[in-house]
Amino acid sequence: MMLHLVLGVAIVAGAAWGAAALWFQSPYRGRARAALPAAWLALAAAALSGQVLGHSFPAWLFGALLLALIAWWTLGVRASNDRQWMPEVARQTQGSIEGDIVTLRNVRDFDWRSRTDYDIRWETRTYDLTRLASVDLALSYWGRPAVAHAMVSFGFDDGQYVVFSVEIRRKLHDVFSEIGGFFRQYELAVLASTEEDSLRVRTNVRGEEGYLYRVHMPEGAARKLFLSYVETATRLVAKPRFYNTLTGNCTTIVYRLADEIVPGLPLDYRLLLSGYLPEYLYRLDALEGADSPEAYRQAGHYTQRARATSDAAEFSRNIRRGVPGISQTPDQDASALPTAGARSSSM
């Protein structure tokens, strides 16, 4: 009896996994896309029926085909950089390092007017690591308080900022699916961009809510983190990999890079529920200038300041007005732009 129960559970699990894999990796679109998953589920139903009626052959057949499917999945579904990509991820950032000087190629600096109307600009920029002055975490929310896109912005004392973002590299006509992210539907990219591009497009064009946090790191750690991003981005050009909703996303990759620099960082559920990263950073004493995560969140909410800024040259300065841990000049304190509409501190 127990054996039959175990086999039944295994068939159901294999049916669900296999149907999802065939759906997300199907070469077909429209109604034809459902043909292979439907056939797979029909075979699973036959296997379950055979179990109930005491016939083991359908279950053995299903098991053999499941092993074949797993083998195809493991050996045949490979990440690639050679696809028709969405314009915003059409290129990959890569860098070269000579002493303290880092040259980044394919830094994105799009001028966004709407989701479909924008000027395409890919630039080569040079950064002097001896002038690296700050590290900021930017979180962008689009609905649920537990889920946010995490980006890291590095600031230099010559006024430059460069944002590193772990991105889903979407193909033309792709529609994002969190479930699809478990089934090798998307490749992964580490993209460098300007703040006027990657931060502004989220608040001013996509209607997301943006929050900024100044992160204080041990001496030398910011430099190592910057170089880790450069090396990871460059490695993906030569060896592509898949995005994974659980193990290879914007937050878990930030953690892996940081753990290489400060070993032994504690694992925490907030590394998966990225909307709660401020509480994690507060626990690590990486935030300064406010006495609670709620206070950081309230003051670091920059959406209205971003939308009120029409001059791109003022964008980086304006979104930092009033952010805890960032030194404010007298003119910033006197002319701080509104922060109305901040999220509830219950996030």
Question: Any descriptors?
Answer:
3-stranded antiparallel sheet, single chain, 2 domains, alpha+beta, 11 helices, 5-stranded antiparallel sheet, 38% helix, 347 residues, disordered C terminus
Concise synopsis of the structure shown:
The protein is of the alpha+beta class and 347 residues long. The chain has helices spanning 2-24, 35-53, 57-76, 195-205, 221-238, 250-261, 277-283, 293-300, 303-307, 315-319, 330-334; strands at 94-98, 101-108, 111-112, 118-119, 122-128, 132-141, 149-156, 161-169, 187-193, 209-214.
Strand content: 15-25%
Give start-end ranges of low-pLDDT stretches. 333-347
> What number of domains?
2
Number of distinct helices: 11
What's the main sheet like?
5 strands, antiparallel
Please report the total strand number as a whole number: 10
Roughly what percent helix?
A: 25-40%
The mean pLDDT is: 85
Order of strands in the sheet with most strands: 9-8-7-6-10
Order of helices and strands: HHHEEEEEEEEEHEHHHHHHH
The end-to-end distance, rounded to whole angstroms, is 47 Å
Q: Which word captures the global form? A: elongated
Structural class: alpha+beta
